[in-house]
Amino acid sequence: MTVPTVCVSNAVDTLRDFAVRADGVDELLSECWAQQDQALFWGPLPKMIITYEPIADLDWQRKFLELDDVVNLSPAGKTGSLFADALADPELMTAVAAYAGPGRRIRLIPHTTTADLWHFAEALRTGHGIAVELPESTPRQDLRDAFDTKTGLRDLAADLGMTDGPCRIPPGIHCAGREEIPAAVRDMLATGRPCIVKADRGEASIGLLIFRPGDDDIDQRLAASPFYGEDQVVVEEFVEGDIAFPSVEYMVPEHGTPHLCYTTDMLFEGATHLRGNVTARELRDEWWYKPLTEGGQRLAEEMQRRGYRGHFGIDAIARDGEVHMHDLNARRTGSTHVHEFGDQFIGPGYIGTHAVGNYDFYGLPSGLELGEVLRLLGQLVASPRHADRGVVPTELTDLHTGRLSCMFFAPSLTELHDLIAEARVALGLDL
Question: Which part of the chain is the ATP-grasp domain (predicted)?
Fold first, then answer.
């Protein structure tokens, strides 16, 4: 008997506690509300998806992508913990229990394994008699939370001797709190290198500060930032110049060998604003591919040895024959769905025939509706079930704010980038 799949798209949970330090937190979190829609491409069909808000234009997406077997539920409350909100909604919990069917068992796939997940799973077991399988969640919550920090990556890499060599962490300093940061910045700048200041639990590039030799406003800028309190802070070399932004994601099973899921080229606007990701067979020919995937495999095997299981991603900067790992995300990432989109709609061997990616467009008119997007994109819109090249509007929950995310697929990486440029022109955005 097939075990029903329930996806809980709690992307905002790990960011909210950090982002609430700033004014305008709702704007900072808006992209995460829309990121919930990525769960459309997670795991097998049929599936139930629990999201903070109902997925916008879901009827169109079901029809266009032939996703008839998708059920979407949202809890009545919205406190910043999707699992806690689901627990507080008796009707939703009853619906999840009913979805388990006669087998009284579900497979639960979250975006992030949080402490509230375990309360949710226990409530299903004790209150509804539902057994919960968690193939992507380590029961070592403390381990997951430690790996999902800036110091966690640096400590793990240092333990493996990866402070030097072709795949390494950048030179850096750990600060116990705000008072240690200015001296650490000045020490780094004194070596003639720019540096970046990162809060230990920071997410989504929020709160990053970059300093360069000669800057005389270090104390003022640090004092003005709401993101540095008593938590640990990392000050490390800011790698810039002729660089690439590769990323890898691994799956660490409870038993068996960890494996590489995919490799992406991250598409940035400026130094810290991620706009998209692309994966393609051509990336295997890049000079950074071997050192990054071999280094990532070392981390994956050590994480498994310590008790971790589930997805994790490594974001890196590649320059001058060295790959600098600067972030570890111990969860599904913002590009997991890119790989799963290709796997689900093109086929498990899609990487041999296609390039697949996503891109977020900003600056569209507020109040924009899907019908107008489809009109503007015209014949560029196509389903991978029926075409070799096309654009699929996704993450439509945030469309009304003027942000549109799209999936792209094409026979080659060059054609994929051309397609992104064509969509940008069609949407009336400046090149």
Answer: 154-359
Q: How many domains does the chain have?
A: 4
pLDDT of 39-84, one tens digit each? 999 988 899 999 999 999 999 999 999 998 999 999 998 877 899 9
404 and 265 within one domain: no
Domain boundary among 215, 237, 259: 237
Residue with tokens 């409530």: 123
Of 21, 306, 35, nearest to 147 by C-alpha is: 306
Buried b (16+ CB within 10 A) or exposed e, 119-135: ebbebbeeeeebebebe
Say if residues 77 and 35 touch (Cβ distance below 8 Å). Answer: no
Q: Which of 25-34, 112-121, 174-183 has the highest mean pLDDT?
A: 112-121
- Number of Cβ within 10 Å of residue 100's Cβ equals 21
pLDDT digits (tens, 9 = 90+) for 129-138: 999 999 999 9
The encoded tokens of residue 192 equal 């003639």
The pLDDT value given to residue 247: 96
Domain that holds residue 178: 171-237
Does one domain contain both 267 and 212? no
Residue 342 domain-assigned?
Answer: no
Residues 64 and 213 in one domain: no
- Does 409 share its domain with 269? no
Assign 70 to helix, strand or coil.
strand
**CATH number of the domain where residue 394 is located:** 3.30.70.2860
Q: Is the pLDDT of residue 14 over 70?
A: yes
Structure tokens at 402: 């003027």
Helix (H, G, I), strand (E, B) or coil at 16: helix
> Is 339 a domain residue?
no
pTM, rounded to two decimals: 0.92
